[in-house]
Amino acid sequence: MEEPGLFPIRKLAIVGLGLIGGSLAIDLRRLGLASKILGYDSNPQHCRKALDLQLVDSCSTMPDDLLLEADWLVLAVPVQSIEHVLDQFRPFLKPDVLITDTGSVKAPLLKIMLRPENSGFAFVGGHPIAGGERFGPEAAVSSLFEGKRFVLTPDQQTRRETLGAVRRLWTEIGSEVIEMDGDLHDRIFASVSHLPHLLAYATIQAIADSDSPEALEHSGAGLKGFSRIASSSPEMWADIFLQNQQPLLQRVDAFSSCISEIREAIVTNDRERLIELLAQAKAAKDRWVH
Amino acid sequence: MEEPGLFPIRKLAIVGLGLIGGSLAIDLRRLGLASKILGYDSNPQHCRKALDLQLVDSCSTMPDDLLLEADWLVLAVPVQSIEHVLDQFRPFLKPDVLITDTGSVKAPLLKIMLRPENSGFAFVGGHPIAGGERFGPEAAVSSLFEGKRFVLTPDQQTRRETLGAVRRLWTEIGSEVIEMDGDLHDRIFASVSHLPHLLAYATIQAIADSDSPEALEHSGAGLKGFSRIASSSPEMWADIFLQNQQPLLQRVDAFSSCISEIREAIVTNDRERLIELLAQAKAAKDRWVH
């Protein structure tokens, strides 16, 4: 088997040329980390755009024979699609291809990769903590991942050299690479990412549903910052919510309990209790979120 | 009676030298809109700081005889305190003083101003749509209100010249002044300001309460934008929530319904419905919030 940690990577395939896949392609080329980048995206318009923007050297809507020479396969498709993409692409892959991904939910994919048909691949899951509410290949930018965290989720199946190679790739790109258990990853990101997205959508809907939907015109900086993420892709976030169903529902319910406590303090005019609840939250925010 | 619209204002008193009162003082002086600015703040440290920063020409923790010469009184104290402050300051005010305020909730104050002991004053309520999570006199900055909306809430009692004078003041400061019924104001800001603040606090608490409170360390740009306002003053927001109790509770309950709908779609794995709900919210967001 060829050394998977060899840089520059001779041929690297990216499936999914959205914000993440496209921005990765830009950096790989800019930093000389891959000599040739093969692009795949089931959306023909994405494919055309990615070629126009010279994000990739080739682009196809379907797996093809070029894949036979790919040393790396990076799955940057919506989490819901990874299983289908793997089934489609598997027949075209060489057995020692290194597979990694950029999905926002890890446990379901880790389970899929344990299946006999996938367990032979050199694989490690990954998740760049970067993004934004814009999407599609035209949203791709240089240095999106610089200074951002990248979470690797190795398990017992992960080979040391696979882990090392993917770690090196994202380190070269400028990310701060950390490792985390896949289940813990999903619980943490249910909290800090999936829950806020869900709430941003619900907040906007609750205001739009009101008797004064024009209220949104009066939003100040607070709501703007708060609701920016409600412009994110509904399809992508629906898939993330469904893939991370249980951890997310736990956080939604914990959140509903917090709302109930605050609501109760407002209903009973309990100023002291209300201040206590808000001050606790402020303390946690000031301690952790910078 | 002296012309209340006379600029520069000879002597203007500001009660409450926090972010709003302090920033107003800076702009009044910078733009030459008031010849003398009398400061009042029940917190001696705020008073000292406001004098150190030369925000005001004098500062006292209590109403004093200087007030007898004040042509304008701007109440920039927490909404809950306005009634108490008015009772304290009333004996020191000349009968034709112009009173206005900067509070985030209007209906309760409008009711207070209709009482016999207050109804003689030239008064109009106001609310600058500006602020931030920092507070206290040291948070005061120049041009905080420039390009921001300022909502005036005149009622049947409001004299035309009072309305004109306060409108002119905030226009000179650079705000876009609009007029709105007080009750409508409170419903709208329950939606676009008070609800998001309440949710930001509850979100942080729900994450901090989880089995992985360190999750907050992993927050990306989404949660940062979403939760910035959870650093705001707990006392100030508790008071706003309590003052705007009914409109806010209505929005909280509408929000809880939206959460339930999304939750149901996740529980039943109804991808189509979930996408529909998120897409509706995204459309409202993209239409209204820029």
Describe the structure.
The structure is a homodimer of 290-residue chains. Chain A is of the alpha/beta class and 290 residues long. Chain A has two domains: 9-180, Rossmann fold (3-Layer(aba) Sandwich); 185-288, 6-phosphogluconate dehydrogenase C-terminal like domain (6-phosphogluconate dehydrogenase C-terminal fold). The first copy, chain A, has helices spanning 19-30, 44-52, 82-89, 107-114, 160-173, 182-208, 221-227, 234-243, 245-267, 271-288; strands at 9-15, 34-40, 58-60, 72-75, 98-101, 122-128, 149-153, 176-179. Chain A has an eight-stranded mixed beta sheet with strand order 3-2-1-4-5-6-7-8, with helices on both faces. Chains A and B meet through helix 6, helix 7, helix 8, helix 9 and helix 10 of A and helix 6, helix 7, helix 8, helix 9 and helix 10 of B.
Describe the structure using short key phrases:
2 domains; 8-stranded mixed sheet; elongated; 6-phosphogluconate dehydrogenase C-terminal fold; 47% helix; alpha/beta; 290 residues; Rossmann fold; 8 strands; homodimer
Helix content of chain A: 40-55%
Order of helices and strands of chain A: EHEHEEHEHEEHEHHHHH
Subunit arrangement of the protein:
homodimer
Largest sheet of chain A: 8 strands, mixed
What is the CA-based Rg of chain A, rounded? 21 Å
CATH architecture of the largest domain in chain A: 3-Layer(aba) Sandwich
Strand order of the largest sheet of chain A: 3-2-1-4-5-6-7-8
What gap, in angstroms, lies between the N and C termini of chain A?
Answer: 45 Å
The CATH C-level name of the largest domain in chain A is Alpha Beta
The named CATH superfamily of the largest domain in chain A: NAD(P)-binding Rossmann-like Domain
Q: What amount of the residues of chain A lies in strands? A: 5-15%
Mean pLDDT of chain A: 92
Structural class of chain A: alpha/beta
Could you give the count of β-strands of chain A? 8
- Note the total helix count of chain A: 10
Number of domains of chain A: 2
Note the overall shape of chain A.
Answer: elongated
According to CATH, what is the topology of the largest domain in chain A? Rossmann fold
- Low-confidence sequence ranges of chain A: none
Give the largest interface pair and sizes. A-B, 92 and 93 residues
